[in-house]
Amino acid sequence: MARVSPMDIYKLLPGLNCKECGEDTCMAFASALIERTKEVMDCPPFEKDEYREKGQKLLELMTPPVKEVILGTGERAVKIGGEEVMYRHELTFFNQTALAFDVDDAMSKEELEERVRYISKYTITRVGQDLRYDAIAIRSKTGDATKFGDAVMTVCENTDMPVILCSLDPDVLEVGAGIAAERRPLLYAATKDNWEKVVSIALDNGCPVVASAPGDIQALADLVALLEDNGIQDIVLDPGTNPTGDKFGETIDQLTMLRMLAIEEGAKPLGYPILGVPAVAWMVEEDPIRAGFLEASITAAQIMRFCSIVILHSPEVWSVLPNLTLRQNIFTDPRKPIKWTPASTRSASPTSRALL
Ligand code: SF4
Fold first, then answer.
1. Of 104, 116, 164, 352, whose CA is between 20 and 30 Å from 37?
2. Could you read off the pLDDT of 249-286 as tens digits, one per residue?
């Protein structure tokens, strides 16, 4: 798909050069929209009836082929997706891959609190940027809705990070969504078997939804169409993560195909952020060191291959640090080299400081 040019945008602007948007001219505003330093509605004349239709057309024109989805609320809300190009050098990538870490409802309250606080507070500074973890994925391991609700409550009391509620049982999801509704949790997941109930929970609580159809892109597109037709606007795609053998190669191929279909073919049902689950490494490796290495490798591949969010199990710094660095390198803007004063302080959480 051809990229939108400043002239395409300019044609839809009011053309008043009134400076109300903070730019000197409408053309400068068009460039700012391309750079995403301004938004369409930063042009106040679009609120007037005479420009409303043009404004609507411009909003449609400016919607990126991969829709941007916001997880969570407040200061720690995370934007995922919103990408326009396949490769960073063609423009830039806008929203870095979010790193989510799992907890589950079989953990004791004390274990849960300790792990959540660690994930929430972890920060390491590299070339002047603070690198942090982004979200907590709460898994229903017991299948018990009451235990899941208790776990969701404990997580929400101990962090303001976005949360992902993980269960294929809508009754379990419903309890968690009710408790965490204020922070707009991501529901994982709607499938061909449960989507109607999950849609109902999402609409009641204003939640984004993961559409899950492992290994089948057509089934994923069909499921997304069902969610869209029933009022879900914020969707995340889960094409499945196979951790080993030929199936791992298929996983990576499908990630590439999904992004190509969205960006180069304009396939609208696939124009959403993609989710990967490197934590599946822990299902095939019992040894925690081997599992940590496998998880880190899968994470690297999925960051490189267009996943907008990944769910990990190990928050250990030796396992995650290489991918924090990889992510930082990929998601800095190639048009703006990082500027950093060597005298800037180097800081890290206590755990990572020991390794620096
Ligand atoms: S506010 Fe709108 S009309 Fe006025 S200069 Fe900016 S883009 Fe042009």
1. 164
2. 999 999 999 999 999 999 999 999 999 999 999 999 99
Alpha-helical (H) ranges within the chain are 6-10, 26-35, 49-62, 109-121, 145-158, 170-180, 195-205, 217-229, 245-263, 281-284, 288-304, 317-331, 350-353
Helix (H, G, I), strand (E, B) or coil at 345: coil
pLDDT of residue 238: 98
pLDDT at 67: 94
Q: Are 167 and 151 in contact (CB under 8 A)?
A: no
| Domain 6-62 coded CATH 3.90.580.10 | no
pTM of structure: 0.89
Ligand 1 touching residue 17 (CB < 6 A)? yes
Q: Which of 126, 130, 149 is nearest to 138 (CA)?
A: 149
Look at the domain 68-331 and name its fold: TIM Barrel (3.20.20)
**Does residue 19's CB lie within 6 angstroms of at least one atom of ligand 1?**
yes
> 51 CB less than 6 Å from ligand 1?
no
Cα 42 to middle of ligand 1, angstroms? 8
- Ligand 1, atom nearest to 44 Cα: 1
Ligand 1 centroid–CA 233 distance in Å is: 29
Instruction: Report the C-alpha gap between 3 and 243 in whole angstroms.
Output: 35
Is the bond preceding 189 in cis, omega lying within 30 degrees of 0?
A: yes
26 lines ligand 1 (CB under 6 A): yes
Q: Write out the two tokens for 113.
A: 């609190």
User: What is the model's pLDDT at position 91?
Assistant: 82
Q: CA triplet 165, 305, 335: central angle to 5 degrees? A: 110
- Report which protein residue has its CA nearest ligand 1's atom 7: 26
Q: Which of 237, 236, 193 is nearest to 215 (CA)?
A: 237
Torsion, Cα 302 214 120 112, to 10 degrees, reads -140
**CB of 14 sitting under 6 A from ligand 1:** yes
Domain boundaries, the chain: 6-62, 68-331
Q: Tell me, what's the pLDDT at 339?
A: 74
Residue closest via CA to ligand 1's atom 5 equals: 17
